[in-house]
Amino acid sequence: MNAGQFDRAQALLEEALDLASEEDLCARIELSLALVMSQTKRTADALDLCVAAAGRPGLSRETVGLLHSQRALILMLHGETSAALREFELALDALEDDLLLGRVHLNRGNVFLQQGRPSVALPDFERAEHHFRQVDNDYLTAKAAHNLGYARLLEGDLVGALQSMDAAHPYLAPDGAVMEAVINQDRAEALIAAGLVTEGCTVLRDAARTFSRSKLHRYQADAELVLARTLVRADPEAALKAARIARHLFERVDSRAWAARAEAVVVAAEVELGRRGPALVHRSDALAAELDEQGLRWGADQVRLHAARVMVRRGSYSDARLRVDAVRPGSHAPLGVRLLSRTARAELAHAQGRNGTALQHIRAGVGELHAWQSTFGSLDLQTGVVGQGRRLAVLGLRLAVDSGDPAVLYEWSERGRMLASRILPVRPPVDEQTAADLAELRQLQAGGDDVQVPRPRREAELRRRVRERAWHNPGSGEVTEPAPLADVRRELGTDTALVAWVISADRVVGLVVTDAGERKFELGTFARVRELLAGLLPDLDMAATTLPDALADVVRRGLAARLQTLADLLVTPLLESIGDRRVVVTPSGGLAGTPWSLLPGLVGRSVTVAGSATSWLSARQRPLSLERVGLVAGPRVPRAVEEVTAAAKGWASAEVLTGDAATADEVTALAGRVDVLHVAAHGRHSAENPLFSGLELVGGPWFGYDVDALPEVPQVVLLSACEVGRSSVRFGDELIGMTSAWLHAGARCVIASPTAVADDAAHDVLTHLHEGLAAGLDPSAALAAAVATGTTTGAPAPFVCFGAGW
Fold first, then answer.
1. What values do phi and psi take at 122, rounded to 5?
2. Where are the beta strands (DSSP E) in 515-606?
3. Which of 104, 484, 568, 729 stands 20 to 30 A from 23 (CA)?
4. What pLDDT sits at residue 730?
């Protein structure tokens, strides 16, 4: 039965019943048989069999307790949560055995989870763990720990959830394909909460297929329901399909209560698809009442909120208000309910022309999301978990753009994106197991000794372990509010301008802030900018290769024309307001990869690209030191040794690592004792997992995970490597890659390229850059001067200064 082989289990139990004669034993066998029957869509027959078992004479007190426990479990699986809780109470009154008490607490905790009450479920799972430990049952202890993790997930404690699930996995996974699918399904929800939607959905689909092959229709329905809930915002069409499959399967196993939960996701998906028919509202109202009867308050509230959103679309504002006012989620409500409540209220206020009120609701909702986001210490998680608030952030940006008020636009250019740059980082102690895994991964990628497991599989396992162990690090829980515009203006002084580019729907808006004030610019459609950027990176990569002179000339002239066109759209309209000032750039994620230092109007100008004005302002509080310098030449880069040797000559003293000395361990140590670190090496950006982007050193790559774990970091990092200035864009315009790893670890600024760079161009520009630094220029000014020295006939050097470059 535990392995999901219900037909075989039923045959064995019926054989046992034929052999048994004692009434108490017969009753126990019938209770097990009833549970098997409930799993094969015969719930009514299962409950009838429980009644028959209860009618046998002379039952022991323990068997009576088991009778109530089994009836409760069958009712729970059927979705009758209130009746199940009454039966569990009776079971607890009758039972004394630790093993049996543990099972009751384990199952009752699951009922509370079904009701959306994870805080009430947590003590039951803790008691179950205690009882199972008393009888040294590692398997059931692990089950309780896994469920405890799932409850923590629903509470918003993703770190605690992953820790509990990881600890339980080795004990549960060997129990067969069905059990592994069950625990993987729960784990998929954690992956999805972490922002790994594609990976989580793949796990859910695999679980659904496993249940389908085993003819476990109720389990399959569970997996399809979780998949549907996951996809509601990201892909409502796919969510609708999965929710309908789940509803059909629940009906097939005669579980109306669970079918109603699937119907709630059908409603949510239809609302996300923009539907507005009156029938949708009538269905929602009836469904909310049904979910209330089941004790599923939060599910009912979500349906009411979706109905209110439909009424807003229909212009029935008073009806929408009635439904919105019926939902009052406090701080204990699930985050998803709180965010949906803020969304419905903001949409209603906006439709009524009360945009100030709408922005208040959005601000509060985004703040709740940010508070949760800040509980994670992992940069990967901080940038991945914002999908739940995407709808609110998009609406906030749109209202800010429409407002015409530069101050409001500034606030939302800060509040609506790149939150990770405003979370106070926590530096956890070095994890020895992670360090060992990264070292082994380096060896594998460098072509080291063969391992027992095939190399690709072993690499995938190591990457998974490194990534997920990093998720366990707790965050500070502290988020800085966006810096007041007056403070930013004061820090800018007379010689600096802040330029924010905001993308809302297909509009690009520019905001220029100087000591003289703020000005907003409409810059046209994003479609044209996106088209130019799509061709720009390949053009830069091509321009960095060795080509015949005639072809090189054609490529570079085409690149120059594309850069000019992009600058005409994004930069030229702003130049009058910028004047001759240096520039702090805070672009939307859609502009990631733009080589700002090459755009006409910015060439030769000090430009630094910051995650936000707030993070730039914070970094400026630390004095800039450029005294201790370290340089590294990685293997197989033709002019790397020449580059770092030439750069070192500009300094009175500099540490240089070349040849076999340029290992990950040596560079890690060097990074902890210098102010300026220059690494000339082959680089690679990993779009699949950006923190596995790396710099090629002797013995294998130095990863973003290595950088993010450094106890001490230089103030200025120069990466003479292709692609490592590239970032992946996640929900909420969160950027993640090698540069963000350095900045998160504490570097003040990073100079890197988002594209390939010709060896000669890198050598010349970075050598000149060091001359500027040694002469007293700040990093941004030194880069601007070095780039400006390049000729129009040479290969471009698209280095960009990220962070606070002065």
1. -55, -50
2. 517-525, 582-587
3. 104
4. 54
Strand partners, 668: none
The number of angstroms, rounded, from the C-alpha of 479 to the middle of its chain's C-alpha atoms is 17
Token pair in block for residue 579: 């004047």
What is residue 594's three-state secondary structure? Answer: coil
> Looking at 267-330, which runs of residues are DSSP E strands?
none
Task: Strands of 534-633 (E only): list them.
Answer: 582-587, 607-609, 629-633
Report the relative pairing of strands 507-514 and 517-525 from DSSP bridges: antiparallel
Kindly list the strands in the beta sheet with 700-703, ordered across the sheet, starting from the edge strand earlier in the chain. 683-684, 694-697, 700-703
At a CB cut-off of 8 Å and minimum separation 6, what does 720 contact? Answer: 640, 643, 678, 679, 680, 681, 757, 762, 766
Q: What is the CA radius of gyration of the chain?
A: 30
Distance CA 337, CA 152 (A): 17
How far is it, in rounded angstroms, from Cα 20 to Cα 37? 20
9/14 Cα distance (integer angstroms): 9
Pairing of strands 683-684, 694-697: antiparallel
Two tokens at 650? 């500009």
**C-alpha to C-alpha distance for 658 and 746, rounded to whole angstroms:** 25
Q: Which of 161, 111, 102 is nearest to 133 (CA)?
A: 102
pLDDT reading at 791 higher than 70: no
User: How much of the chain exceeds pLDDT 70, in percent?
Assistant: 94
In the numeric block, which tokens belong to residue 63? 């068997």
What is the spatial distance between Cα 641 and Cα 657, in angstroms, rounded to a whole number? 9
What pLDDT digit, counting tens, does each position of 419-448 carry? Answer: 666 677 776 677 888 989 999 999 888 775
User: Nearest to residue 376, comparing CAs of 424, 429, 432, 433?
Assistant: 424
Q: How far is CA 157 from the centre of its chain?
A: 14
Helices (H), 672-737: 704-708
Interior CA angle at 154 toward 414 and 709, to 5°? 55
Residue 739 to residues 29, 113, 742, 770, Cα–Cα distance (Å): 63, 41, 5, 20
Model pLDDT, residue 451: 46
Nearest to 266 by CA among 291, 254, 284: 284
Cα gap 739→746, rounded to integer Å = 11
Q: What is the rounded CA–CA span in Å between residue 800 and residue 719?
A: 10
Say if residues 149 and 161 touch (Cβ distance below 8 Å).
Answer: yes
Give the number of other CB atoms < 10 A from CB of residue 460. 12
Rounded CA-CA distance 136/102 in Å is 12
pTM reported for the whole predicted model: 0.80
